[in-house]
Specification:
heterodimer; A: alpha+beta; Cell Cycle, Chain A; 3 helices; 44% helix; B: alpha/beta; Rossmann fold; 13 helices; 8 strands; 16% strand; globular; cell division (chain B); ATP-binding (chain B); ATP binding (chain B); cell cycle (chain B); Septum site-determining protein MinD (chain B)
């Protein structure tokens, strides 16, 4: 550690550490999708279409996640409904 | 060499990366040559149908008569097609076809060729094309081990992770429920000076993200371009850091312990380091 590190730490983080942070996030995200069944995106779209018949939501208002534990899979559906006026 | 005769099968190693231009062919040529130098009968197969380049890197482009697709289509025998390396004993090259037909390679055809090669060779190195499509999947399908060539750069690391996913799910070993493909990380074009100044991902950064065992680190080196200009695998340049680093990687692949080297910046950087630059 050199004496200039004190000043450096106050400035922006190095580009390498930005790269590492970005990679860790995207790689974790892509790994979690890796074991998803192929039908999931289409199923997600169809669920959105059904909800849209009744409530006006955007596709980003629906989060679908499939978690696999030892011997069962949990499909988690999270829908953010618009505020009622 | 094989006391068990045909019972002992060759070890199939795929050199892959997802991303193009990271050094797959350079590494295939260097590692294949290194294994042969250790006395193992080795063949390097170019799987890049339509974009044959291993022959140029190995300096045997003018000796190509038949190719991989000719063998699969039974237009030529293996012994007619294999090119014996002129410099290194025990080393052979199986060139890719220049056909534009993407479907020239079939799983059955590749399997047949690998089985035949397996009887005669100790090591089969499969030089994968870039991408994650059929060609790359064909190159890794029958592998026992994979060398994932990665540059310390975001797109290369991400693509390496994707190819690891494919190795774990779409290989024959995965489909048959056998022991998974051995995975090895080979970090190439490494620039210790830029790592020290925080402009490049370090070895441990890449290891943290990909979480697979490290086979070696090849420093960025002028010797690599010089070697490819001349059609000589860089591992034969024992004056160069890249050549020596490849030899270390081959030793580790054979199970020997070799400390990492060439990861420090040159001595002139001492004062700079003292000041934290």
């Amino acid at each position: 550690m050199g004496i200039f590190d004190y000043f450096k730490s106050k400035s922006a983080p190095s580009s390498a550490s930005v790269a590492k942070d970005r990679l860790q996030i995207i790689v974790a995200h892509e790994r979690s999708k890796r074991h998803q069944p192929d039908y999931l995106p289409q199923m997600q779209q169809e669920i959105i279409d059904v909800i849209r018949k009744y409530v006006n939501i955007g596709s980003e208002d629906v989060q679908i996640q499939l978690d696999n534990t030892d011997d069962c899979s949990v499909l988690e559906l999270n829908v953010t409904l618009p505020e009622q006026n | 060499m094989n006391l068990l005769g045909d019972m002992e099968l060759a070890k199939i190693i795929v050199v892959t990366s997802g991303k193009g231009g990271v050094g797959k062919t350079t590494s295939s040529a260097a590692i294949g040559t290194g294994i042969a130098l250790k006395g193992h009968k080795t063949v390097i197969i170019d799987f890049d149908v339509g974009l044959r380049n291993l022959d140029l890197i190995m300096g045997c482009e003018r000796r190509v008569v038949y190719d991989f697709v000719n063998v699969i289509n039974k237009e030529a025998t293996l012994s007619q097609t294999l090119i014996k390396d002129k410099r290194t004993k025990n080393l052979f090259i199986l060139p890719a076809s220049q056909t534009r037909d993407k479907d020239a390679l079939t799983i059955e055809g590749v399997q047949e060729v690998l089985e035949e090669l397996s009887k005669e060779f100790d090591y089969i190195i499969c030089d994968s094309p870039a991408g994650i499509e059929k060609g790359a999947q064909m190159a890794l399908y029958f592998a026992d081990a994979a060398i994932v060539v990665t540059n310390p750069e975001v797109s290369s690391v991400r693509d390496s992770d994707r190819i690891l996913g494919i190795l774990q799910s779409k290989s024959k070993r995965a489909e048959d429920g056998k022991a998974p493909i051995e995975e090895h990380l080979l970090l190439t074009r490494y620039h210790p000076g830029r790592v020290a100044s925080g402009e490049m991902l370090s070895v441990s950064d890449v290891e943290d993200i990909l979480a697979i065992p490290l086979l070696g680190v090849i420093p960025e080196s002028e010797a690599v371009l010089k070697a490819s200009n001349q059609g000589t695998p860089v591992i034969l340049d024992t004056e160069s850091e890249a050549g020596l680093a490849y030899m270390d990687a081959v030793d580790r692949l054979m199970g020997e312990e070799r400390p990492l080297r060439f990861l420090e910046i040159q001595k002139k950087g001492f004062i700079k380091r003292l000041l934290g630059g």
